[in-house]
Every structure is written in C-alpha cells, then in structure tokens.
Amino acid sequence: MGLSLSDKKELESLLKFHSLNINQMITFSKNLIPSQGNIEDFAYGFIVGTIIGNYSEKFFQRHNRAPDNDELMDIYFTMSLRSAKIRKTIINELKY
Prior knowledge:
The chain is an all-alpha fold. It has 4 helices and no strands.
C-alpha cells in the first residue's frame, strides 16, 4: 500500500526543511568528520541519515509502529529521487 498522502507530505516537508538548512549541516559535519574519508561523502551520509531518522521518528509517533516494507520502499524511493540534488548541493556549498 505504501505511504499515505499525509505521510508523503511529511517526508517532503522534512526534505525541504533540510535542503534549506544544508549549509548548517555541512558545517556540523566538518566538526564531526573522522580523520579518514572525505567531507562530501560524510556530509551526504549525515544529511540523508538525519532526514530518514527524523522521518522514522515522526512516523512512529504518528502511527505507534515502524514503517512496513511497502512504506519503507516509498521512503527510500522518495529519497533516491532527491539524493542527486542533495549531493550536488553539498558539492556546490563546499566549493565556496
């Protein structure tokens, strides 16, 4: 069955919020990055993980359960549609 319309709107809202605050999250990532690896990959993982984590918590609070397999597929599909834009934004922010 997948996500309901209100759940999809909630996920889109989180994506929009975090895309507006990506510079703050990159700055925070720079403070956390381990000595190995690169900041682009670390920031991307941090931002995507934060979005999925925030959404999962909101979903649990609303439904008193974790997302089922169909709902998880919707979440990851939606994230996959935005992942290239998130990565490009990170790269552009790090250039300046």
